[in-house]
Amino acid sequence: MNPRRSITKQVHARLEREPRINIHRHPIEIRHADGGAVVLEGEVPDVAAKKLALEIAGSVRGVDGIVDRLRVAPGEVRGDGAVRDSLARMLLEHQEFRNCTLRSVTNERRETLRAAQADAVGEIEIEVTDGVIVLEGHVISQSHKRFAGVLAWWTPGRRDVVNSLEVRPGYEDRDEEVAEVLALVLEADPLLDATQVRPSCTGRTVVLEGSVPSAEQKARAELDAWALFGVERVVNRLQVTD
User: Is 0.85 surpassed by the pTM of this model?
Assistant: First the structure.
């Protein structure tokens, strides 16, 4: 069998076995680029399905890289301007970014939404194209980068998030910091009662323990964990109390 065809069949088979992806309802096109990279293109149900699909395809022997053209189905269809404005409002309102310079980019034209004062936590630029949110600039911690990325994933109408924020000064990422920022994210989520949720992280794997009032909130907490930059696996052990 042709090596590329063999790789395509293996990727398809592994994607088919992952229930979170559901390629029969959300088909993924698998193609090959130059140099052994595999291209994944299609619309998946959520950020968990997107991350899992990329990880699964990359684990197949002979795949030397992934070209990510997957998009996440939006909860509602909105124009790029509306998506950008919604995210800008959330960043302006959240306490974590109260002293952060914020700019929006439209057709390469930059508009300053807020100029930070001394001891700023960073500078963030928001650009949206075809529902894809791109965050550029810099922040002072991995936690700020991750929190900004989650707010982008929460934005109505978004189809993908590219979190290109730099952390200045750079430092080693820690599992403890991932768990800490996830606790803040869960607390800030207006659709979630996270008072009994205990997140932890080991080696890029997040574990959720404790309880929530409903199955919908259990699923929501898991998606919040998947939305964190750098998280590769989520183990959801939450109990539903009602």
Answer: yes
Report which of 124, 140, 144, 42 is spatially closest to residue 84, judged by C-alpha positions: 124
Distance CA 183, CA 200 (A): 9
The number of beta carbons lying within 10 Å of the beta carbon of residue 122 is 22
Whole-angstrom CA distances from 162 to 132, 152, 228 are 7, 9, 12
- Condensed to tens digits (0 to 9), the pLDDT of residues 159-207 reads 999 999 999 998 999 999 999 999 999 999 999 999 999 999 999 999 9
For residues 89 and 111, what is the distance between their CA atoms, to the nearest angstrom? 14
User: DSSP label at 35?
Assistant: G
Which tokens in the block code for residue 184?
């803040």
Overall number of domains in the chain: 3
Residue range(s) defining the domain that contains residue 136 = 80-167
CATH of the domain at 202: 3.30.1340
DSSP 51-103: HHHHHHHHTSTT--EEEEEEEEPPSS---HHHHHHHHHHHHHHSGGGTTEEEE
Comparing CA positions, the residue from 156, 147, 136, 171 lying closest to residue 80 is 156
